[in-house]
Q: What sequence folds into this?
């Protein structure tokens, strides 16, 4: 649901995942000594410990709860709790990271001190001062050595991806052809929402919206979307493929100024207000589209190569240890 760029993944790991020891509402029971000895997977003879899994899972816990609220973990997804699905996905991610790290080492790809220093500086910029940055690391029991090692691994993988997809290209003709065949993708809408847990509550709020009460103020007061406290339900502009399907279908079927009926998704009941709808011309988005197509093409090529790497790697998972 959330797609992160390589740099965003790095910064998320560096800044967000290290806060796992402070979490007051952990979803994973932790016994530091036991977890440090518990193996959740083995890749090519190298072990992945439960402590590593806990850190990565906590990164996603923070991100998902900020966006969807803590109740997300009890949601049902094809007969399984969302938390169990996410645990499985996080383990798969850790295995893939290890597979790529080993492949980078095998092919002689390195991370220079200069590259590491650049990314450390990016992490520092999240804080007002060097002192606050160091205080934060101390509070999180995070050493600079560990921080630099995390960054080094990410750079190795990033450099591996760049090397293996260096010859991938997208032509102007491909861009024009894609645009002509997928024009519905270039409609953007600007919407606001109020998210409610129950249908009964949602109906009451919808009635107030239809009577003309201020949508943003109602979102601020009633919406279960944590971000509503800051944006009063304003989701900004987005294209198709960003929101969950029932929400997307409703939003793109509306005209500017309209209020939807209740829209039910796995997250609850949504009331949508469409603020604006616009169509992007090719000349305005050609470069952006070309970069996006290139990224997608490289991703496709790289995923094929990843399948080969996984097949060659000796992978053993122990999901029961999560």
A:
């Amino acid at each position: 649901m959330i797609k992160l760029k390589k740099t965003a993944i790095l910064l998320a790991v560096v800044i967000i995942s290290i806060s796992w020891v402070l979490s007051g509402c952990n979803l994973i029971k932790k016994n530091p000594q036991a977890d440090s000895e518990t193996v959740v997977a083995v890749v090519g003879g190298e072990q992945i410990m439960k402590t590593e899994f806990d850190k990565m899972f906590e990164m996603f816990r923070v991100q998902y709860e900020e966006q969807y609220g803590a109740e997300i973990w009890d949601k049902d997804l094809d007969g399984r709790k969302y938390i169990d699905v996410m645990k499985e996905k996080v383990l798969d991610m850790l295995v893939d990271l290890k597979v790529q790290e080993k492949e980078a080492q095998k092919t002689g790809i390195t991370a220079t001190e200069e590259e590491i220093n650049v990314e450390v500086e990016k992490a520092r910029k999240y804080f007002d001062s060097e002192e606050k940055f160091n205080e934060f690391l101390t509070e999180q029991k995070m050493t600079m050595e560990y921080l630099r090692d995390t960054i080094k691994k990410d750079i190795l993988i990033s450099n591996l991806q760049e090397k293996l997809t260096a010859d991938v290209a997208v032509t102007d003709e491909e861009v024009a052809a894609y645009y002509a065949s997928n024009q519905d993708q270039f409609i953007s809408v600007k919407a606001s929402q109020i998210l409610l847990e129950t249908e009964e509550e949602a109906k009451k709020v919808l009635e107030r919206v239809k009577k003309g009460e201020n949508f943003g103020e109602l979102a601020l007061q009633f919406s279960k979307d944590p971000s509503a406290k800051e944006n009063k339900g304003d989701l900004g502009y987005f294209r198709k493929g960003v929101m969950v399907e029932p929400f997307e279908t409703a939003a793109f079927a509306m005209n500017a100024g309209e209020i939807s009926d209740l829209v039910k998704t796995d997250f609850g009941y949504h009331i949508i207000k469409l603020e604006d709808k616009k169509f992007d011309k090719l000349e305005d988005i050609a470069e952006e589209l070309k970069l996006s197509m290139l990224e997608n093409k490289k991703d496709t090529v790289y995923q094929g190569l990843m399948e080969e790497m996984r097949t060659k790697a000796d992978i053993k998972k122990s999901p029961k240890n999560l």
About this structure: The chain has 13 helices and nine strands. Residues 6 and 272 are 32 Å apart (CA to CA). Strands lie at 39-43, 46-49, 76-77, 80-81, 187-196, 234-238, 263-265, 268-279, 315-317.
